[in-house]
TrEMBL record:
Protein's name according to its UniProt entry: Cupredoxin
Pfam families noted in UniProt: Cu-oxidase, Cu-oxidase_2, Cu-oxidase_3
Gene Ontology MF terms: copper ion binding; oxidoreductase activity
Keyword tRNA processing attached: no
Keyword Metal-binding attributed: yes
Organism of derivation: Rhizopus microsporus var. microsporus
Domain of life: Eukaryota
Domain Plastocyanin-like: 27-139, 165-290, 424-495
Family of this protein: Belongs to the multicopper oxidase family.
Keywords, sorted A to Z: Copper, Metal-binding, Oxidoreductase
């Protein structure tokens, strides 16, 4: 079995960030009304956090007494080795941070660099509590990235060099307050997700037929001519899978979920909820003020019609070192003259063609798993007409309470009690106990909802990474499918997409994916 070793740079630091959670009225898409949400330090998106591998990071979460709701902050994609209490999941790894209280999360960045983000993990607070979290290989890269418009020099991260980098944080926005939106999802009147009113780029958009005066317009991504840029895309999304492209600029994919991949030329980027991807673009020899649209379109949704999202746009804006006059340009009109149709939504996008820069751990991938856990997740109507998820026929029961998290409860009483003989479930702890050092496979079985529809699901392993090794249509049958590997060079990831498969008449199961992981810490999977 492989031994996990942490390499800590000699210049590693402790960096402390204070996140003040407070109520705010927002109108990011120039609609005719603002809505009550929670933000970090009054900013949306939340402040960007930049650190270096080996650093110890301290988050001080201060929840304003005016918030009226508890909160927590999850650092999405960051490994938590021995610091599960810092993962930021209310009820599971910590008690919720009540109004007027604070909570400190401290963890070390171990053996990982790349693009991550942090977001709230209570209710629908992540709509507005979300910010970028970037990990660099060296302090020099961090300092250069913070300066943005550099005049000379290159940033080198991994095997790639580029002049500058930009962050593109994509999110969804509803014309509802945070409180009204959460009430809808948990009420008997819930009748399915109706989709966002706007797609935001870096917290900006322009709603259709906007009449607001002084509208800031669509987000602008400033670039200089004849330069190489790394665009760090972050899927701060709840439900939608986006296709993204930049007019007249080719993209080369180099990173997925904090893992470098062999450079792959792409005609569009597919971005799922929680996923992060870096692409390189080469800018042209264009004059100041030249604009090129960044366009988004919906993928893998019922309203997919090969057309663009109504407001999910931004612009590449050319700005030279000599003048900043172009920085005053703002655009409130959606781009014209885009291609009539969007790229096709091929099953799996290009994932099977991707190859990791750092080869997968052969021991984990060639070792036979000690067991396979199959999780069949289904959306069901309850007797009171509310909608919940069932996992292997079990309705979710809350973990922890206001005084003790699930982690606290298990530490105080680690005996899981009798385990289900079929899937190994602990009724006592409402968990699937896993032994330290175990290599296990987890199958996520997709199921049609009450309306007979099958929907896509992204699965995220908290504080942990996994290998996506196989997928297939219909119902997973262990005897038939246990040895199937549909991904010959699996990537180490923390978000894996469960795509739609062709419908099999008369069957409720509608496709599955299988991941493999090596249990060296607490593992949580979330849809």
């Amino acid at each position: 079995m492989a031994i996990l070793m942490a390499v800590v740079p000699a210049e590693a630091k402790k960096r402390t960030f204070e996140l003040n959670i407070q109520p705010t009225l927002l109108n990011p898409d120039c609609f005719n009304q603002s809505y009550a949400v929670l933000t970090v330090n009054g900013q949306y998106p939340a402040p960007t956090v930049r650190v270096v591998v080996g650093d110890t990071v301290e988050f001080i979460i201060k929840n304003s007494g005016e918030s009226n709701v508890s909160t927590s902050v999850h650092i999405h994609g960051i490994l938590q080795f021995g610091t599960n209490q810092a993962d930021g999941v209310a009820g599971i790894t910590q008690v919720p941070v009540a109004p007027g209280c604070e909570y400190r999360q401290e963890f070390q960045i171990v053996n990982q660099t790349g693009t991550f983000y942090y977001h709230a993990h209570v209710g629908v607070q992540d709509d507005s509590i979300q910010g970028s979290f970037i990990v660099y290989e060296r302090e020099e890269s961090l300092i250069k990235a913070e300066k943005e418009m550099l005049s000379e020099g290159l940033i080198q991260e991994g095997p790639f060099e580029y002049h500058e980098e930009r962050i593109l944080l994509w999110s969804e926005w509803w014309h509802q307050s945070m409180y009204d939106r959460q009430a809808y999802y948990t009420s008997p009147t819930f009748d399915g997700d109706t989709g966002p009113d706007s797609i935001l780029l870096n917290g900006k958009s322009v709603y259709e037929n906007c009449t607001m005066e002084n509208c800031p317009g669509f987000a602008m991504i400033d670039v200089k001519p004849n330069s190489t840029y790394r665009l760090r895309n972050i899927g701060g999304l709840t439900f939608r899978v986006l296709g993204l492209f930049i007019q007249h600029h080719n993209m080369t994919l180099i990173e997925l979920d904090g893992e470098y991949v062999q450079p792959q030329l792409i005609d569009h980027l597919e971005l799922t909820p929680g996923q992060r991807s870096s692409v390189l673009i080469q800018t042209g020899n264009y004059p100041d003020g030249t604009l090129f649209p960044i366009a988004s379109f919906y993928k893998w949704s019922f309203n997919y019609h090969k057309t663009y999202s109504p407001s999910g746009f931004g612009y590449i804006r050319y700005v030279s070192d000599k003048t900043k006059s172009a920085s005053a340009i703002r655009v409130t009109d959606a781009p014209k003259n885009l291609p009539i149709t969007t790229p096709p939504q091929d099953h799996g996008w290009i994932l099977r063609d991707l190859k990791p820069i750092n080869h997968s751990n052969p021991t984990i991938l060639t070792t036979s798993p000690s067991r396979t856990i199959k999780l069949s997740m289904a959306q069901v109507k309850m007797p009171d007409n509310t909608t919940q998820f069932q996992n292997n026929g079990r309705v979710h029961k809350p973990w922890g309470n206001d005084t003790a998290s699930l982690l606290d409860i298990i530490k105080a009483d680690p005996d899981p009690g009798p385990l289900d003989p079929i899937d190994g479930f602990s009724v006592k702890h409402q968990t699937y106990p896993v032994k330290l050092g175990e290599v296990i496979d987890i199958v996520f079985q997709n199921m049609k909802n009450e309306a007979g529809l099958c929907v896509t699901h992204p699965w995220h392993t908290h504080g942990y990474s996994h290998y996506l090794i196989a997928e297939g249509p219909g119902d997973y049958d262990h005897d038939e499918h246990k040895s199937i590997f549909t991904y010959q060079q699996p990537l180490l990831r923390d978000v894996s997409m469960q795509y739609l498969w062709p419908d099999i008449p008369g069957e409720r199961p509608c496709g599955w994916i299988k991941i493999r992981l090596y249990a060296v810490s607490l593992v949580m999977a979330k849809v």
